[in-house]
Design brief:
The protein has 151 residues and is an alpha/beta fold. The protein is built from 5 helices and 9 strands. It folds into 2 domains: 55 residues, 2,3-Dihydroxybiphenyl 1,2-Dioxygenase, domain 1 (Roll); 89 residues, 2-Layer Sandwich (Signal recognition particle alu RNA binding heterodimer, srp9/1). Helix content is 23%, strand content 31%.
Amino acid sequence: MTALNHVSVCAHDLEASVRFYEELFGFERLPTPNFGFPVQWLGGGGTQLHVFERPEAAPTYHHFGLTVDDPEPIYARAKELGCFDDRAFANHLVELPGDQVQIYLRDPAGNLVEVDAAGASRLPEWMRAELVALADQEPQDEENLRARLAL
């Protein structure tokens, strides 16, 4: 394998889902083939996100992760939108070993999106107030503490 080419998600309202990814993450619309049903390809961060308008429900735990440099504006906007997910991993803002942070969101169709960033210790206090350390929820052995996302 040379690279991950794209991830696809279902949408119940294509335009609402596309706006979500444009607004929160800066994805841009790309030329998209006609598949016989509404589809929009988006580009960002060197990869693509394909959004398909389909009636299926989003899976509860399946997700994809997006790396961001600055989680604060995404967190603030997600808070305004009320799209945090506390169901899949017990909290919407999690500190991983190695000073990493994860934000869990649901897009308009219910797809789980993990937002990853380095620097949990550098988060502003108003965000740290909602942060839960994974090590406080589940025991972490030496190997667990060496785990790192590809940030």
